Amino acid sequence: MSISPASEAWHSALHRLQRDGTPHVLATQVTSAGSTPREPGARMVITDDAIFDTLGGGTFEWQTIAAARERLAAQRYGLSLEAFSLGGRSGQCCGGFVNILLEAFPGVEAHLAIFGAGHVGQEIVKLSAALPWQLHWYDSRSDAFDENYRQQARLACHSLSNTSQCVAALPVSAHALVMTHNHEEDYMLIKALIERDDLASVGLIGSASKWASFEGRLKRDGYSTDQIARVRSPIGLIHATKLNNKTPYAIALTVVTELLWLTDTPSYRENRGLDSKVLRALFTNAPTTTS
Fold first, then answer.
1. pLDDT above 90 as % of the chain
2. Is residue 3 part of a domain?
3. Helix/strand/coil for 252
4. Per the domain annotation, does 275 fall within a domain?
5. What PANTHER family does the database record attribute to this sequence (predicted)?
6. What's the CA gap between 39 and 65, in Å, rounded?
7. Buried-exposed string 136-150: b where 16+ CB fall within 10 A, e elsewhere
């Protein structure tokens, strides 16, 4: 297999991929013994379809790329260590030994679908910009999205032309917020969303009376109690306390706070380091392998 690293340097690619929320692996050569292609500190970045920079080429680099992509495919994020005996495992004539630290990043920690580009939706998008979320923003109006929003990292703007198709395209475990300018459009979205049992949450903006109306319609349309109970409405209620401030920014603050609680699940950051035995072997230059 030939390897053709992209011309972009590893540090530039790392910044861009983290900004854009693309899953990737940073591979760093942390030790070397004997004759090796590169020195400790050499780095490369790997995604499922590209590589940036190089650890020196050869079979061990191909094996590093394969190990990184295996972790991405299995969603095994965090730290791991790969050991290469260049004359043994990698079959290279230089015969040295290297340890490669792999840091696998998921890109984003949650997917948020926002249906509606009104004032509250705009504020939610602004407040979410600094969070590790991928935003999927929908609106049926042709002029709904300002060009500035289209430049925001981890934000994709879509036309809400077909409700069923848009909902079907959402990633598994996405969190959905329904807040369009049209109540009938809201209702059609809620119906489509609760028919998917693999979404993390479904929220609807509006008053208690709006939800009571929707709830009655859903029952008449044959939806089960469990399906209806999946809808969180009104959204943005903190500890079941009503918010007196009804400005779009204030509502958005409570909605994003609520989402922070909903998305606060175990993540790759719980992998806080390597096993102490592995580290001892690493710093004494002793060959070691990990699973």
1. 53
2. no
3. helix
4. no
5. ALDEHYDE OXIDOREDUCTASE MOLYBDENUM COFACTOR ASSEMBLY PROTEIN (PTHR30388), XANTHINE DEHYDROGENASE SUBUNIT A-RELATED (PTHR30388:SF6)
6. 18
7. bbbbbeeebbeeebe
pLDDT for res 12: 94
HSE toward the beta carbon, residue 186, CA cutoff 13 A:
22
d(CA 39, CA 75) in angstroms, rounded, equals 29
Spatial CA neighbour of 263 closest among 168, 177, 191: 177
Q: 119 and 91 in one domain?
A: no
Q: Is pLDDT of 4 > 90? A: no
Q: Could you tell me the two tokens for 117?
A: 């580009």
What are 33's strand-pairing partners? 97
CATH label of the domain that carries residue 238: 3.40.50.720
Q: Residue 93 is encoded by which pair of tokens?
A: 């004539």
Is residue 93 pLDDT above 90, yes or no?
A: no
Show the tokens assigned to 125: 């998008």
Contacting residues for 30 by C-beta, under 8 A, at least 6 apart: 40, 81, 99, 100, 101, 282
Tens of pLDDT along 16-41?
A: 888 888 899 999 998 887 777 788 89
Task: Answer for the pair 103, 81: CB distance below 8 angstroms, yes or no.
Answer: no
Residue-wise burial string across 239-270, b where 16 or more C-beta atoms lie within 10 A, e elsewhere? eeeeeeeeeeeebbbbbbebbeeebeeeeeee
Q: Do 127 and 224 belong together in one domain?
A: yes
Residue indicated by tokens 């390897």: 3
Q: Can you say whether residue 154 is alpha, beta or left, with left for phi > 0 and alpha for psi between -120 and 50 degrees?
A: left
How many whole angstroms separate alpha carbon 53 and alpha carbon 10? 5
Q: Which amino acid is at 210?
A: K
Return the closest-CA partner of residue 133 out of 115, 113, 151, 154: 154
Kindly state whether residues 27 and 161 are assigned to the same domain. no
